[in-house]
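Homework help thread (please don't just give me the answer)

Our assignment gives two proteins as sequence + structure token strings and asks us to describe the second one. The first is just a warm-up. Here they are:
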Amino acid sequence: MRVAIIGAGPSGLVTLKYLVTAHHSLGTKPVEVVLFEAEDSIGGTFAHRTYEDAELVSSKQLTTFSDFRSNSDNPDFLSTERYLQYLHDYCTHFKLWPHIKLSSRVLSVRRRDGGGHRVSYINGVETVVHDCDANVPTSLHSSEFKTKSQFGIDKTVLILGSGETGMDVAYMAVNSPTKQVLLSHRDGLLQRFAPIFRVPDPVILPILGNKPDPTRLNVPVDSSSASLFDTAYVHPRLRDHMLLWEYYDFFIKSTLWLVGGSKYGLGQFVGGISDKRYHASKIFFNKSNKAMPYISAPYEKQQNSSLIQRIRSSIIQVPISPTHGRHIDLAPWPSHFDKAGTVNFTNNGRPEYARLSGETIRPDVVVFATGYTQTFPFLSPDSNYHTPSTLDTRSLFHSSDPTIGYIGFIRPSFGAIPLLSELQAQLWTLRLLSPSSLRPLSPKDEAHYKLHQEKSARIQYGVDHESYAHQLALDMSATVGFWEVLKMGWDSDKDMEGAWYKLPLVWALGANFNAKFRLKGPWEWNGAKRVLVEELWDTVERRGGFFAGHITLSGLPMLVFGTISLVLWMLDPLLVLFEGTGKKGGKLGKKPGPKSVM
């Protein structure tokens, strides 16, 4: 079989690795694979569309692949430079370089007579045709912003867009010799945790002078979920119901308010997301929030003037980073620029409009941080190719044509695309080379992992990270049960000290790491247990106290959801019988929810 991959970002590289090495794990014939990259180096967005001082907003525990881990001396959140070095080392370790064609821009992909596809690309000045049996496009987007010097000196900077890139650029601008920095939003923003995407560790009784421990680094949020009774051993009726979403929605809003004074984010006193959009089942968390203290600074005094806020913050408070007298002006979305270059903002009825309405603002620099639109100009329109918006199987391929796979074309509410891309690459490779290794890919399992975006939302490919990862693992029969993991830990203890209890606890209390799904199944790997016991045990051990630790992140959800699932498993025969009589009501499971079942 011949396969073409388009794009040498993390998703393309991990797909290349699984296709190149598939015959070792699956016993199939070797696959002839070529990866085409238009640029002169690998890395995709991280290499060619990054900017000064950029760092990943997802933790290294989730952005590194299962069988090639980050160096232990790396911080939880890698800089783009370190991540690019990791990707280069990954290619070297798995001998991927001979399969990669750099400076090779794909011009067209069309169906070939007799089956398969024909890829035309340009390498330098020569146009080449490459026949193959499958093709995997990866994501694209552009940015011209690179360094702080582009802001100039004593200039007014307007950033359009309040996503992660917009927040990064605003933070860089306010820490440059600029005159004024404005961040414009359409309908509010949602900041999860500050100053970086870690589980919050509030100070108890700061009124007594208590201070945070500067040496303590709590676990990254994307590595803090407990999987037992959240995705593992969840009854299908609970999995497909809104109850799980409602619990996490309440937990997020109440915790944020309790430890930070705002249900929209820690120290976020302005620009909250609209109530229509603010629900755990709909949102993407903005994980780049170092700019938030600067945005809230003009409103902080008013926020802290209320009696209830003074009482709350004297009892418990996550410290807010100082701004040293600088601030960012939050602004509504512009309606237009007049001939003099003055920006006119839409009256959104919010405090930021009233605050700026008397000012005349003429930006010197405008940065568009408005996201991107997925386009595939190389796909031949007369070949009727499906695109990500029309896929019907695991947000990965269409059931009518599994030879076209889209790896990495999903967005988790929080989590990391590289981990999901690895699981997608595993499943898609199995579908191509060994479809009998897969469980039936039931359409009934599609809805529960998808976010419930509004129809008007630009992004319609959101997923719940934990649920989606677990579903893909289930499809590949790569999930392990409680007794299995207990036995694995006991059998491994002579080789890895403490494995008898660490492995089961990481399995139960840890997030759905990709290494967890290589303990068994078609991609079983001997090193998976060591990764979980010796590296990822740290994510369980580092959890803090009541608000940032095992009680709220593990104990309460496991108690609530475990009890509900247990009752449902016991009552299921009666519920089935009751439903069979044609009576309505009493059925838990009418709305799609976020989680999966073991």
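The one we have to describe:
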Amino acid sequence: MSTRPRASALRLVMAQINLCVGDVPGNVSRVIACATRARDELSADLIVFPELTLTGYPPEDLLLRPALHEMVSEGLDRLCAEVQGIHLLVGHPEQTPAGRFNSASVIYQGEMVACCRKRHLPNYNVFDEKRYFVAGDGFCVAKVAGIHIGVTICEDIWTPEPARAAADAGAQLLVNLNASPFHTGKSNEREAVVAERVGETDCPVVYVNLAGGQDELVFDGESFVLDRHAATAVRAPACEEGLYPVDFAPGDSGIEVLPGEVSARADEEASIYKVLVLGVRDYIEKNRFSGAIIGLSGGIDSALTLAIAVDAIGADRVQAVMMPSRYTAEMSLEDARAEAEALGVAYQEISIEPPFNSFLDVLSDALAGTQPDATEENIQARCRGVILMALSNKQGRILLTTGNKSEMSVGYATLYGDMAGGFAPIKDVPKLLVYRLSEYRNSIAPVIPRRVIERPPSAELAPDQKDEDSLPPYEFLDPVLEGYIEQDLGVRELIALGFEAEMVRRVATLVDRNEYKRRQAPPGIRISKRAFGRDRRYPITSGFLNAQLRRNGK
């Protein structure tokens, strides 16, 4: 049993756990197990779980199925029946005659003693809550161990009204349940916003966040507590499940937080790498794949993807396949072998020359009189896609694609070739960040050869091919893409920032023209504020870019 400080009037446990969307009975069992441990081993008065605990987040259109709500009702009944001696605070959808609410209930000794209904329903970026829920009051107040606790849910802490209403209703401590997905810089944003609420209410705030991957989203945890002075009193580690106790005691001016463990923040590269590993692991495990297959080219993208996969599920469950062609450099073969050996994965070489030649023979009459171009290059990529998908089907392993955000943005990828696969770990990672993440991974243990990091990138689909034959240098391309995609800057604005006009027009044209490719790409992990997929929903058929260019007189 955890020793509780004598001064503690209330011990609260933050349950930063990884849930499975839709598995209501399994999630309920997790809640019961965590509550039992918090009560018996940690001497807790209250355990707080994330937003929509019982369904997982985001349940999306599962919320439209009556069977889900039947399971939620059964789950709440089970919690009331099976958990005694500790207060539970759990998130769940609530179907009522007045509508469907995103709710959180306080359960104690078999009864639901208080219920909070989320007021502010986010409907931007990856969020679509107005499709599913109606707005509630935004707070409730419950008494636990003599302390009045105000409860709010996720988005409601980002605006002043719900927290202030809870404080006006007598709350001495605020608790916020969250399912807040990662993007770069998000941790600082959360603590800054919560600090504003502390200043407005003079109440400490407990912020409990979900941990785990769900399709494109990764919830990074980093649950925390700010004291009445807006100082961080407790912070849970990122991307890790756990039960984290926090002690509170009455002070001269209000409820005080007793000092606890404050996990240090990792730098940007380390944070992103941990998120990528967690996202890959959960996608593979929650979808019950036996392992992963990766096409290893000897280049930096596939090398980084291989390292992420190994760190996610272990070397024994990862297979690397090198598929050389007539254009593959010897150094690429050497580096691919070195990467596989350094990471301890099964490695195989399968030449694409036989199928490539067969396709050329089959198409010889149809292509007669034409010069080699992207057609022949794409045939090579598609030969590789067929081989990798055959191995994936046979072994029950997921094929991880290796394309980065820079390539996906401008369509520098082959449909049914290198885009073939089930999940895209670095889909939202720009090329320059790929280099930084590779350096970070090598700082842990050198697994990516220096030559892979230092040599000019190439698809090796034609003689002496380099990426810069088809694309602007990544040092210029990535900032333009960030402005156009993530900041919604137009051609005129980007040129005004000093980017070369012709390059901006070319890049914008490539981005807009290749929306059809991205619609057919596998899902991938979101790390930016604006990722392709649920974050950025652009029409495939659109005259908007041409209208921009005409407006600019070009």
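TA reply:
I won't write it for you, but here's a hint about the kind of observation we're looking for: The first strand starts at residue 10 and ends at 16.
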